[in-house]
Q: What sequence folds into this?
């Protein structure tokens, strides 16, 4: 829909992507975040699965490969939550908040 049909909606979205705590966060997360998260998941599974396979190959314990993959997945999910699932400025109040 064109903004001339609904001017109230267009004016509400004017400051969404530019500046402010929400705008800065959205600009940072907007470009390539999905690919980054996906690569963390795949990379963690490959790295720790490979380590588990290598150790399992020499110790003749085949269960270490899937355990390594699960450990890699868990570490990747933890890193993703740490990096993307928390607010950046925990101690700073939002702009315009004079409390």
A:
């Amino acid at each position: 829909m064109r903004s001339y049909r609904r001017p109230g909606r267009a004016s509400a979205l004017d400051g969404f992507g530019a500046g402010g705590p929400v705008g800065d966060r959205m600009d940072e997360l907007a470009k390539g975040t999905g690919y980054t998260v996906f690569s963390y998941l795949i990379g963690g599974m490959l790295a720790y699965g490979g380590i588990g396979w290598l150790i399992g190959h020499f110790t003749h314990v085949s269960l270490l490969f899937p355990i390594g993959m699960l450990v890699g997945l868990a570490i990747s999910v933890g890193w993703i939550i740490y990096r993307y699932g928390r607010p950046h400025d925990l101690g700073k109040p939002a702009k315009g908040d004079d409390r």
Observations:
- DSSP finds four helices and no strands in the chain.
- The CA atoms of residues 52 and 58 lie 10 Å apart.
- The radius of gyration is 22 Å.
